[in-house]
Amino acid sequence: MKKHKRTSVKVPKSSIVLNLEPIMTLRNIPHPSAFLIKQGLNRGSVGKMLKGEAVQLNFQQLTTLCFALNCTPNDLFSLREMNLPELHALKALPEFVPKAKKTSVTEWLAGKSVAEIKELMQQ
User: Fold this and answer.
1) Where do the structural domains in the chain lie, given as residue ranges?
2) Tens digit of pLDDT for each residue in 15-47?
3) pLDDT higher than threshold 70 for residue 120
4) What would the pLDDT profile of 45-82 be if each residue is shown by its tens digit?
5) Cα(62)–Cα(39) distance, integer angstroms
């Protein structure tokens, strides 16, 4: 049987998101990738999971995550831009907040004037 790449689900359009960052922070896991790979998850899947780009998750992966992180499936998922009726059960999930892009020193300095930089250096 030939495998076909899934093209129907686009990451930004997925409304329910696997969001591992809060639970990893709560569990004080300094190296999430290494931790998840050590639990037996595939390196490629781990990368997508940690970036919030995973579009599918099987029950084995879900069980592994819940067991390793001592949590329930509800602790792993968030909602991204989903319009739901007022009393919908999915409203119990937290809102997905993407990680802010890290700014390099060069990018940060590019928005500052010379006077601002001199003032910062004197502090």
Assistant:
1) 13-122
2) 888 889 889 999 999 999 999 999 999 999 999
3) yes
4) 999 888 888 888 999 999 999 999 999 999 999 888 87
5) 12
Both structure tokens of 78? 């968030």
Rg (CA), the chain: 19
- Statement: 13-122 belongs to CATH 2.30.38.10: no
User: What are 58's two structure tokens?
Assistant: 């099987």
Longest dimension (CA), the chain: 67
Residue 79: in which H helix or E strand, if any? strand 77-79
d(Cα 16, Cα 79) in Å, to the nearest integer? 5
Place of tokens 């998850």: 41
